[in-house]
Design goal:
globular; single chain; 78% helix; disordered N terminus; 0% strand; mainly alpha
């Protein structure tokens, strides 16, 4: 079964351009309250902030467990937590349901694996900047109105400014890994929306996380071996999983139930801006005038995209 076969083109187009309409289970009142308090924009922002703090913890962990070891720990712990909390039902799922979960899990594992390989070779800011081009490209492809293309273009200008105006001298393998991570990020957005539409609560996310963990664990074990079992490494891995996977992925899945995937893709351009702000506040990395301008462009583009989606103008 091919989950993105031509016969399914209409469903794919719906995932790109319309909010998902996943049913809310009776036990999902907590998620409903969270959505009501934060709104889709707040959910995306909270997820981005969580990811950046998780990345800070991952920096401490990578020298101990390696890039693939960190990814495998992150996905494995996150999968265990989500499976225990959600206890997803697997009986009665259709082949299309399983296909969606499988592709979502593969995209999730590949996105994380490629990104950490990139971060191991090029500066984190450059890696995030290159990676975010994937969601931006998705936004341009999915948009049907000129104003959405303009917002995406403005966000792209901000991302390029934040990169320092060019990528000359960067490790080419690192650049390739970052771009590959961006492609997988775009796939993640599409299949996160489709998973949210097919499964209640975060059941589909839990199953997809398990798929991703099963794919990455052999690579992580080969990369780090017994280092993964050191208590301090396991503890940091759990923190990375909660901050970088469980919380943000759940928040993003909830957001995609109320936002078109194309608008969500533009909002993902906030990631480099959040990273730069976290570096200033937590790591005392000074921002130049160009950096501040870049952040402003990205934020304006993201807010404009949300306003366009809400007002339809």
């Amino acid at each position: 079964m091919d989950p993105i076969a031509p016969a399914d083109a209409k469903a794919l187009d719906t995932a790109l351009t319309e909010p998902s309409a996943a049913p809310v289970a009776a036990g999902d009142s907590g998620a409903t309250g969270l959505r009501g308090r934060l709104g889709p924009l707040g959910l995306v922002l909270a997820g981005g902030i969580s990811v950046q703090f998780g990345a800070a913890v991952a920096v401490w962990l990578m020298p101990r467990a390696g890039a693939l070891g960190v990814v495998s720990l992150r996905l494995a712990v996150a999968a265990i937590v989500l499976l225990v909390v959600c206890r997803p039902r697997v009986r009665g799922l259709s082949r299309t349901d399983w296909g969606t979960v499988l592709v979502f899990g593969v995209a999730m594992a590949a996105m994380n694996g490629f990104f950490y390989q990139a971060a191991d070779r090029i500066p984190l800011g450059a890696a995030v900047t290159l990676e975010v081009l994937g969601p931006l490209a998705l936004s341009v492809i999915a948009s049907r109105r000129l104003v959405n293309l303009l917002w995406a273009g403005l966000a792209l200008c901000g991302v390029v400014l934040l990169s320092g105006g060019g990528f000359g001298g960067l490790n080419l393998a690192g650049v390739a890994f970052a771009l590959a991570a961006g492609c997988m990020w775009a796939a993640y957005i599409i299949f996160s929306a489709r998973t949210g539409a097919r499964f209640p609560r975060a059941d589909g996310l839990a199953l997809a996380m398990a798929v991703g963990a099963l794919l990455m664990l052999p690579l992580g074990i080969a990369d780090a071996g017994s280092k993964l079992l050191v208590p301090s490494t396991l503890g940091l891995g759990a923190a990375v999983a909660l901050l970088s996977s469980v919380l943000p992925y759940t928040l993003e899945l909830l957001a995609l139930r109320r936002l078109p995937a194309s608008t969500f893709a533009v909002l993902m351009s906030l990631e480099p801006a959040i990273a730069a702000t976290a570096g200033f506040l937590v790591l005392h990395q000074a921002l130049s005038g160009v950096d501040a301008l870049a952040i402003a462009l990205v934020i304006v583009a993201s807010m404009g995209a949300v306003r366009t989606q809400v007002t339809g103008k």
